[in-house]
């Protein structure tokens, strides 16, 4: 199941930026530190409702064959996603690579075509998709209503009534708790100038100077705009035309939501079809397709080093729930 969005591009940099490689020492023409920000240290949630959502997230009985849970494709013990190219659901192999649910609440829209704009709304997709959980809300609600465990959990969660709306509410509240602060880059943003190595700083400088930060911005370093995939060279994405599949408007062909780069070093394979197993290869593909440049090896290595500073520990609340 892919709760968040379909990865089509590891990261999409604006074609309005420079179409040639610059040196890392070049000064960006904008204040990049105003475009990015650290993940908040704390997130305000209702813990009892989030705990209910965690139980639902791990329950395969929400699917039509009682075998596929949210956890099946979003492994909370590792990266919040999975390591296979594409996900396997109730009716077989799906179409896209699963994207991490960590920090998903920081995205402004959901799914790679941007068709949902709230966590609650996007939950409908995996529940009802035949290639994912292949269920429906009446079936899910009947199962939950008959469970003594869920009756007690809903009672403990502000005495919520058991309904499809409140099941979505609980799942969304749980996902809001899955933030990963305290990456090395966050420490740097908070004023620790020694947090990054010289190579990592060069990578960050280059990330800014060639324009990647114009699209990968905000606390999630992405996830907050739509962009066309493949401005300067055609990138084979087979039948997936992104937003166009929803709107059927020609101008929407190959437009996808810009990917978040948080924890990107842990979420291989990359792109919507999982075609690329390494960050190095993904960086080269995006440099050519989005910026029209062929990056030198040292530049690729610097950017990869920077991207690895976006890794952070698993959400702390998971260990709490697992040990209760």
UniProtKB/TrEMBL annotation:
Cofactor(s) annotated in UniProt: heme
Gene3D superfamilies registered for this protein in UniProt: Cytochrome c-like domain
Record: residues binding heme c 1: 70, 73-74
Residues binding heme c 2, per UniProt: 212, 215-216, 286
Keywords: Heme, Iron, Metal-binding, Oxidoreductase, Periplasm, Signal
Textual note on the cofactor: Binds 2 heme groups.
Main location: periplasm
InterPro entries xrefs: Cyt_c-like_dom, Cyt_c-like_dom_sf, Cytochrome_c_Peroxidase/MauG, Di-haem_cyt_c_peroxidsae, MauG/Cytc_peroxidase
Post-translational modification: Binds 2 heme groups per subunit.
Pfam families on file: CCP_MauG (PF03150)
Protein name as annotated: Cytochrome B6
